[in-house]
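step: validate -> pass
step: tokenize input -> pass
step: predict -> running
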Amino acid sequence: MLYIASNMRDADRREAEGVLEDPSPALIAREACKPHSLVRMFARERPIAVIGVTQTDKSTWVAWGFGTAEFPKIAKSATRYVKSALLPTLRTLGMLRAEAQSLVDNVDAHAWMRLTGAEFDEDLKAFGLNGEDFVQYRWR
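step: predict -> pass
step: emit ->
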């Protein structure tokens, strides 16, 4: 995960900077391994992306992910994983809602979340640590 965090796409880096007081690659990699999380890494010749969810209460999970510029190489397999494995697993565990926050201008991330079945939930004005606007998507 450290390799991915050290080589993130610019949009992913800006999102991390908007929500983490210390967006260093080491901290990002450590945060991805929190207890009560399900995490999956995707790779080809080298690590490309990591996608995960962290449980926040009995029925709610926060989804997150970050990747390198090579994300398009694994996008189809990541989409299949979310739809056919991750979401069914979360529902079995009692999920009523999963949500993800994304910078308002990260349209590629928004499109990908919609491909996985997410729906737009709400605008999050000044959600970021420096007043950045985010949006929230949800899965049910």
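step: describe -> The chain has a mean pLDDT of 97.
step: cleanup -> pass
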